[in-house]
Amino acid sequence: MSATPREVPRLAVEDFFGPPARTRASISPDGTRIAYLAPWRERLNVWVESVDADEEARCVTADDNRSVHTYHWTDDPRWLLYEQDGDGDENWHVYRVDLENPDAEAVDLTPFPGATVAGFETSVARPGRALLHLNRRDPAEFDLYELDIAAGELTLLAENPGQVAGWLHTPDGDLYAQTWTADGDIEFAQWDTGTGKPRPVTTFDGSDYPLGINPFQLTPDGTGLWLGSNRGSDRTRLVLLDLATGEEIEVDSHPDFDLDTRSTVFPTLPSPLIRNRHTGELIGARYLGERQVIHPLDSHFAAVLENLEKLSDGDLSAVSCDVSGRRWVVSFTHDRDPHVTHYYDHTTGESRLLFRPHPHLDPRVLAPMTPVTIPARDGLRLPAYLTLPLGVEPTGIPLVLLVHGGPWHRDSWGYNPLVQLLANRGYAVLQVNFRGSAGYGKTFLKAAIGELAGKMHDDLIDAVEWAVTEGYADRDRVAIFGGSYGGYATLVGVTFTPDVFAAAIDSCGPSNLVTFLRTVPEFVRPHLVNNWYLYAGDPSDPQQEADLLARSPISRVDQIRTPLMVVQGANDVRVVKAESDRIVDALRARGVEVEYLVKDDEGHGFVNPDNNIDMYDTADRFLARHLGGQPSAE
Question: What's the pTM?
């Protein structure tokens, strides 16, 4: 039911970007406790409460500097682990919390300055232990370690000889590795730890996997590998790779959708694989089109899923259960009721609402997100999402074009606090999955090769033209707003098409593709061959370097006349602060309006609520000045 104008209060920025009351809950393996994130000293920390007993919840971490976002139950009810970096520097450490000793401080299990942990995973086959990749020896190379959680001891399992993208270690002790060939193909081989020589298992065309292969998961018995494969297909389907023969056997697929691999970019999003917590076996697979589709691959989970999906009209998001498969804690993606979390007992059929992370937000005053399809000028069909403000006639209103990052990511249906803030201010919001966005097949993905500041940008301009032609948008009041690649796209918008936008907001966007690619972290550089080098160019080649510079906003900075706001984390290691400094300094030298917001305790994207509130409050007022909106909640 549509709301009338008087039913749509003007909400404060804090309503959207303040910390959630609770979020990201999961149940312990023994089914007795629930962990979740909630504020402590204005930062998100891990809390634990009993499922059955009426006792007060307890905060078990104590980070008052930076919000915690990732934690892990272990099979031992005494230990809980969490991950944290330093002010956005992406040097991730694993910490251990003793749940039986509330007064004990967290223990840093990877206390190596300048090093980062990747690929952390507990092992069903090896209770009390976890596997992790760590670059303590060489910043560019990740070695494989096994962590004894209780003892806090690390054992080196494999030293990276160079070019190894990732390791797998079977329960029987066999070692496998992904490596790159000179032309970017991905070779997967068994590794002889005695001789150091590989036994090839299979090879993948690296150009088909710009962010690597996901999922890439050992079966519990270590004889096979579940992976997302698009070999011989436009779509990414779920296959089982036989480690002895290299044969791929299809496990599951969707006729129209790719596996949902968004967790490749944002690991806090659900994995495309849903697995049995006790056995590690596969019980479900996620696919994503306009909305999510889950295929149950196990009869017990099929029965559970049928009941879980009755709890909400949203899409099932985070899923956790005890080892018996009886007790479940699940949350839901929804465009207007974000991450509502429920408890469900499959034995009794009992279910109850655990919490709404943002109980102060009334879904009735939030704007629905509608899937639409936009034709590009060359005929390519662009999946997109349109959010129209409530309480106003959606004709000739100001529009914000919101551009996702990556670019090998995608926009999807669900709650987005920025989208809702903008809609609450009376703006239409358009999110277009331009060519190169992930999740729409190889053809759609590869249509972006060589098209930065080319057809990828044309897609965005075509989306604006569509919104104007359809009558939604006022051509003279269109803004562009994006972060990371979306920040680059924003800068391209005001340099390559300076007459289209009335305002622009760039968050941590590269202004010079050459210097950007030369300053990415060392551990990222081996991955560039199949994404940035393939899609944009390699700056070590003089001809490609010239083309990269020509596609860089800094090369056309004299074209900027659009009011611009730039946001940057000082500790950003992916798009360093100099990328923003260059564009800001050049504009200020010309006397062009530019608002520059830098946070010294943030990296590539802001984490702490106070910084996000400041950023979006500033953006709110900036857009109001240039699109004619009302920024405050007054």
Answer: 0.95
